[in-house]
Amino acid sequence: MRLLIGIGAGLLALGTVVSLHGPVALTAPNRLAVLSASAAIFPDPDPQDYSIFKEKIPVAQAESTLPAQTLAVAKSFLGTPYVSGTLESKGPETLTINLQQLDCWTFMENSLALALAARTTAPSLDSMQYFVQKLRYWGGAIDGYASRMHYFTGWLLQAEKSGYLKNITRELGGIPYRKKSDT
Amino acid sequence: MSARPQKYPELKDPAALQQIRQVEQRLNAHDWFLFHRKKLPVLNPSFRTATSSPLLPGKKTWIFHTRVLRSAKMATSTCCTPLRWANAY
Q: pLDDT digit string (tens) for A88-147?
């Protein structure tokens, strides 16, 4: 299997600097309410990423459903440089948010996370980071390199299990695919 | 990945390599489905909303690209796995 995300340049140099934030208050009038997170530690945001985040929230909020919000955010990313490997860094695995450079995977992931964050009562970068972490890591827990999903099929399974999307291939008559994920 | 650990510096760690192997086993145990692109025009009505987005695997690779899809006309790769964002939110 070939990885969707390659190893390359363009990583956001967040290093190991972290800041302690209070509980992420996601008090939405729907099932997002159950996501009220316990204390979370997220890296300090890059000012440029924070600026982009603030631009995207109203874009998502202009729509009403999660699909439409995700698509609206995705369209607003048109023109963003395509850069692979932005999640690869030396040292301990940390949550990387880079809205200035995207590859196809981070494009989709960030679009969805921004849409989800926009649906919270008080959208914040913390809430977006929370959703990115929940989407990007097995069980939403950062615990080393292997805790990050390196196969998009894994991302699919977890996102579907979380109720964010549904793989409709089979119900539309898709054919079985037997290729193994080990290369 | 586990078949070519030398390509991934992080997999020098035996524990990480083992974890990746376990992930691969889980994914391989799952039933996956896809469409050949010739069928996409037939499926077009199903895709013609903002709620679908596909993966586009090729013949030799599993997944090499994913995108948010607005229309099946955008799907030009060999195969695809359409997804529908949940409307429950």
A: 988 899 999 999 999 888 998 999 999 999 999 999 999 999 999 999 999 999 999 999
CATH number for position A114:
1.10.3670
From the list A4, A151, A183, the residue facing B3 with the nearest CB is A183
Q: CA-nearest residue of chain B to A172?
A: B43
Report the DSSP beta bridge partners of residue B32.
Answer: A177
Find the DSSP H helices in B30-73: 40-47
Helix (H) / strand (E) element for B34: namely strand B32-36
DSSP state of A62: T
Sign of CA dihedral A67, A133, B54, B30: negative
Provide the number of CB pairs (under 8 Å) joining chain A to chain B: 166
Global pTM?
Answer: 0.77
The distance of B8 to chain A (nearest Cα, Å) reads: 9
Prediction ipTM score: 0.74
Cα separation, A160 vs A167, in Å, equals 7
Domain that holds residue A72: 46-77+96-178
E-only strand ranges, chain A = 18-23, 39-43, 165-167, 175-177
For chain B, the structural domain boundaries read 1-30, 33-89
**Residues 6+ away with beta carbon under 8 Å from A75:** B68
